[in-house]
Design a protein that fits this description.
Layout: H1 2-13, H2 26-34, H3 36-41, H4 47-56, H5 67-80, H6 83-115, H7 129-171, H8 173-176, H9 180-195, H10 202-222, H11 227-251, H12 257-273, H13 280-330, H14 337-356, H15 362-411, H16 417-433, H17 439-485, H18 494-510, H19 520-535, H20 540-558, H21 561-590, H22 600-630
Helix pairs in contact: 1-10, 2-13, 5-6, 5-7, 6-7, 7-9, 7-10, 11-12, 11-13, 12-13, 13-14, 13-15, 15-16, 15-17, 16-17, 17-19, 19-20, 20-22, 21-22
Amino acid sequence: MLEQKNENLHELADGQNPESNTPNSAHIAEREKALDSITASNAEEGEDNDVHEKNDITILDYEKLDMDQLTTELQKLTQSYKVTNIKDLVEDIKKEFYRQYHDLLEEKKEAFLEEDPDAQASDFDFTLPIKATFDAFYNDFKAKKNAYYKDLQNNLTANLNKRLQIIDRIKDLVDVSENKSDALKLLSDLREEWKNAGAIPKDKYNHVWNNYHFHIERFYDQLHLDRESRDLDFKYNLDQKQKIITRAEELLHEDDVIKAFRELQTLHRIWREEIGPVDREIREEIWEKFSDLTKQLHDKRELLFENLREGEKENLGLKVQVISQIDLLSRQEITSHSQWQKEIKKVEDLRNHFFSIGKVPQENNEEVWSLFKLATRNFNANKNKFYKDLKKVQQKNYNDKLALIEKALKYKDSEDYDKVTPIMKQIQEDWKKIGHVPRKYSDQLWKDFKDACNFYFDRLHTVRNNENQEGNENYNKKKEFLEELKSFTLVGEHKTDLEAIKEKINTWKSLGNVPHNKRFIEGKFNKILDVLFDKLSLSKREAEAMKFSNKLDDLLESNDKRRLQQEAIFIQRKIEEIASGILQLENNLAYVSNATKDNPLVKEVNKNIEKYRDELKIWQDKLQQIKNLDA
C-alpha cells in the first residue's frame, strides 16, 4: 500500500516546481513555460564543452562565399568541431553551395543550347570538379553524424536505465537504512552518481527529473533523520542556490545577451542536477526568485531577437528593391551588344549588392530567393535570346566572309590585273559592309582574307612599279619625238605625205605607253596630227577616220576598256542626235509652202540636211571601227 501511495505521489510531482511537493500554481506554470527553451537544451551530454566550442566557431556569411570557399569552410568545420555544434552550419553551407551550383548549371545549359540550337537538353553534360570534393566532405560529415546519433541513442537509453535504477535505490533508501548517518551518506553517493549519469532522451527528461527530486524530498521529509545533519545540508544547498541567484542577477547586466543566456542554461542544469533541496519553508520563495530572474533574462533575449528581426525586415525591404531593379532591367528593349554589356554589368552589381545585404526573416527567405532567381532568370532569358538571334546574324556574316575569302583566293594568283583589280577592290568593300562574326572565328578569318588580298596587291604593286619605270622611259622618248616633229614638213605630194604621217604614227605607237599622270603628251601628239591632216588634201571623212583610228589605237594600248566603252556610247548618242536632226529638218520641209528647189529657205534646209548626213557618215564610220575591234 505504501509503495502504491508513493507511486501516486510520484505522478502528482511530474511537472511541478522543483522546490515544491504541491502542484504548480498558474503563475508558476507560466514561468515554467518560459523555461522550456532552457530545459530542452539541457538534455545533451557535454553541454558546457559544446557551448564553449560553439563560441569558438566563426560563423561566416555563406551567401558571400563562392563554391571553392564554401568547400574549404565545410572541410574546416567537419574536421575541427563536433557534429552537434556544426550540423546547422553545415546544412546552411550545403544549401548555399547547391544554390550556386544549380545556378551555374542553368547558365552552362543555356550556353550549351545557345551554342548549338539543334542540341537537346538531354545531350547536355557538365562536370564541376569542386562538387565532387564538396560531396565527399559532406558525405563524411553525414557518416559521422549518423554514427554519433546512433551512439547517442544507445548512451541515452543506457543513461535512462541508470537513472531509473538510482531513483529506485533512493525510493528504497528509507526502508533499508536503519542508521541515519549511513542513509545520508548513501544519499550523497547516489546524488553523485546521478550527477555523473549522463544525458537521457529529451521526452523522458522532465518526468525522470521530477521523480528524482520527488524522492529526494521524500527522503528528507519522511525519514526521521538527524535534524542537525539535515539542516546543515539544507543550509549548504541554500547557499549554493543563492550563489546561482547572485550570478543570474549579474547576467542581467551582461552586454552579450546570447552568452548570458547560455550561461543561464548551465546555472539551471546545476540547480536541477547538482544541488539538493532546501528547507520546505523557503523552497517556493527561492525558486520564485530564480524563476523571475530567468524570465527577465528571457525577456531581454526576446527583445534582442526582436531587434534582430527588425533588422531582418529592413534587409527584406532592401532585397525587394534590388529584385525590383533587376526586374525593370529585364523588361527593357535592348538592341545592341554594347548596351547589353552595360546592363549586364548593372545586374552583376545588383547581384553582388543583394548578397551583401544581411539575412531576412526566415518566413520570407524562400520567397525572396525565388523572386530574385525569377528576376535574374528573366533578364538572362532576354539576354540569351538577343545573343541567340545575334549568333544567327553572325553565322550568316561568317558564311558571307568565307565566300569572300574563297573569291579572293580564286583571283589572288591572276595576272589579268586590269580585269581582276576592280574585282579585288570590290571584295574589300564588301568585306567592310559585313558585320561581326563569332569571336572564335574572327582572327582566323581576318588573317586568311588579309593574306589573300595582300598576296594579290603586293604582286600588282610590283608590276605597276615596273610599268611606271618603263612608262617614264617611254615618256622621255615621246617627248624627244615631239621635238623632232616640230621640224617635220610635208613635201606637197598627197600619197607621199600620207605615208609619212602614217609612219610617224607607227613610230609614236612603238614608243609604248606612258604613266597615267603623263598621258597629256598624247594630246600634244594628236594636235600635231590635226595640223598635218588639215594640210593634206583629204576629205573630212577620211581625215576623221584616220584621227579616230589613231585614238582607238591609243585606247587599246592603254587597256582602258572603260574609256573605250564610254567612247562607243558617246558615238551612238551622236548618231542618234544627228539622225533626229535630219528627220526634224525633213519634217520642216513638209510644212513649207511653195517648196521648190529655187526657194531660198528650201535651199538652206537641204544644205543643212546634207551637212548633217556627212557628219552622220563620219560618226557611223567611227562606230564601225569600234565594232570591228570585237569582230
